[in-house]
Task: structure prediction
Amino acid sequence: MGEKLHRILEERQGAFFSGEAIAGRLGISRAAVWKRVAALRREGYVIEGARGAGYRLMEAPDRLTEKELRARLRKGGPWNALTFLDVTDSTNSRAMEMAENGAPHGTVVAADAQTGGRGRLGRRWESPAGKNVYVSILLRPDLAPAQAPRLSLVAGVALADAVEGMGVQPTLKWPNDLYLGDRKAAGILAEMASDPDRLRHVVIGVGINVNMGADDFPPEISGKATSLRIRAGSPFPRSEVLARFLDAFAGRYGEFLEGGFAALHDGWDRRDFLRGRRVLLRRRGGGEWGVAEGVDMDGALRFRPDGAAAVEAVHSGEILEFQR
Ligand code: BTN
Result:
């Protein structure tokens, strides 16, 4: 196929282009131009048509493509193998499969939509098309299996760096959530395969609510979830969000390998959502109320159970509830 109609309209930057001129450029009839305009409208392009003036592009759909991403990624990063899918059940499942089949460290799998997006604790992750970022990255670090959970904290700090870089102030809720105000806007699901003393691979899956509108969330989570767009009042190009996250992750991962979580501690600490709040912590199968007193140099939650004098370092657990 030769030139694309949407490219021709984009070039005009919102100015009208006559149907006749477009037909000439594309070497097709005016009726065929009309048909292509109709097809683009079905894909989400907003194109105004005016008798005598022609067509002009008012709004293009936000596409998440490898080309758009590569144009934005910092050169020389570790992200060489990029896979983009229109739809898949779960990018984490794809990346885990690819890992078993020998895919290299730094493989990235992103999808426009997921039919079985997975959250932590067996929850589902809302994954409609055209709105958000769903991405999984495959890592093959030389670390002990016990170190693996730290990698999702590293991803959290990188995610916060990326969001902050776009002018929105986030906080981080231990262990794996990004908050905007008092609502969740992104979550992280880390999965791994390991031998007794060595990690084989880790997949870090990240779901970022980028351009969801308030009505796009199902009722069960609409009071708890938000998006960058809702918070900032304007949409964000998804490829920009993803490129910023991948760049930030590459940098933070390097810091972590050199200095452990301590090297990133400040990036977490100054954005700590839970500090000083009463929380219901789930660990070892049970729930316990207490106060979150920050995150230590190892990435553990400092937790003071109700009625206890001492603070405990919690390395793995989930916060089921918190006081607002
Ligand atoms: C959570 O907060 O519960 C974690 C959500 C993780 C969602 C992402 S979307 C990309 C990747 N693929 C999945 O199936 N899950 C993660």
